[in-house]
Amino acid sequence: MTNRNAFAVLPRALVVASVFASCLACAPANPSQGGVVGKWKVEWTCGLEALDLKPDGTYVYTIDFAAGGRATDAGQWKIAGRTEHLVGAHVILQNALEACSVFGEKAVQPARRDRELETIWEWGRMILSFNPDIQGFTRSFPFASVAPPPSTSCGISGGRFRLHR
Question: What's the pLDDT at 29?
């Protein structure tokens, strides 16, 4: 192989390596109910949210607002499996307190609605995403690493790089 051919192959190899590395970054997840049980947390503009998903299908939610004050809620939760190719399963907090706006502002009159959190495998851990522009809930204590879901190709969806199954 001449030097000229070697230089032609190098850019292709770098592209393939970059795409492969990106594929390991983020993927829709489809865990069982037992796979999401545990304590989760997220800190964002609205404040520090904590979520405890219990094995019996109940949850306890707490938020310490950045603007001051605290709210708590408890209720039932369930998991809805994947229904689309590029979307993970959803943890659904039924009739949950909506304490913050999508912009991260404390709600003056908190409403109740089903709150859906998408399960996403991201950088070697699962997150529960409620807004694609904000890092979602992460486990609040160390968990043993679990292998990401199998995949066959990569793509970009909703501003995040995700694996296709």
Answer: 72
Considering only CA atoms, which of 44, 65, 51 is closest in space to residue 108? 65
Q: Which two tokens stand for residue 41?
A: 């947390």
Cα three-residue angle 78-79-82, rounded to 5 degrees: 155
Which amino acid makes up residue 68?
G
Q: Which residue has the tokens 């037992």?
A: 34
Q: In the structure, what pLDDT confidence band is assigned to residue 63 with cuts at 50, 70 and 90? A: very high
Specify the amino acid at residue 95. N
Mean pLDDT rounded to a whole number for the chain: 78
Is the separation of the CB atoms in 163 and 27 below 8 Å?
yes
Q: Count other Cβ atoms within 10 Å, centred on residue 88.
A: 25
Domain boundaries, the chain: 3-164
pTM of this structure: 0.70
Distance CA 36, CA 30 (A): 10
φ, ψ at 123 (rounded to 5°): 50, 50
Q: For 26-79, give the secondary structure using H, E and C.
A: EEECCCCHHHCCEEEEEEECCEEEEEEECCCCEEEEEEEECCCCEEEEEEEEEE
